[in-house]
């Protein structure tokens, strides 16, 4: 069985956690008509989804569907973007969000 040839951009997006899980569901015309827009890039897709609503005035449900995402994904991205700008759309590392401290040892007297 032949192995599929690896694509460097797909590999990089996967490694960074930015690979869109369903790029084939992205139907927004910008992603179909421009080489700049890449449906595999989840950060780019999320930003464009937010821009379509804010700048173009599209409905949330329409923009999310055209980007292959859900309405809750839109609102999560919107909150993150408003809180931290474009870097906030980058995936977070897995694990606890705050350091976990160990309880102090009981001292023996």
Kindly describe this structure:
This protein has 109 residues and is mostly helical. The protein has a domain at 34-91. 44% of the residues lie in helices and 0% in strands. The chain has five helices and no strands. It has helices at 8-16, 29-33, 42-54, 60-66, 71-84. Helix 3 runs antiparallel to helix 4 (60-66). The protein is flat. The N and C termini lie far apart (69 Å). The mean pLDDT is 87.
**Rough outline:** flat
Low-confidence stretches: none
Query: What helical percentage do the residues reach?
Result: 40-55%
pLDDT averaged over residues: 87
Structural class: mainly alpha
What is the H/E order?
A: HHHHH
**What is the helix tally?**
5
SS strand fraction: under 5%
The largest sheet, given as strand count, sense and whether it forms a barrel, is:
none
What is the count of β-strands?
Answer: 0
Radius of gyration: 19 Å
- What is the terminal-to-terminal distance? 69 Å
């Amino acid at each position: 069985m032949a192995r599929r040839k690896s694509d460097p951009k797909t590999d990089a997006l996967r490694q960074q956690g930015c690979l869109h899980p369903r790029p084939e569901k992205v139907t927004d015309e910008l992603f179909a008509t421009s080489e700049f827009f890449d449906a595999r890039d989840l950060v780019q897709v999320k930003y464009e989804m937010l821009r379509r609503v804010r700048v173009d005035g599209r409905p949330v449900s329409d923009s999310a569907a055209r980007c292959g995402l859900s309405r809750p994904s839109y609102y999560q991205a919107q909150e993150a973007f408003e809180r931290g700008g474009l870097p906030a759309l980058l995936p977070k590392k897995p694990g606890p969000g705050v350091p976990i401290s160990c309880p102090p040892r009981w001292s023996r007297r």
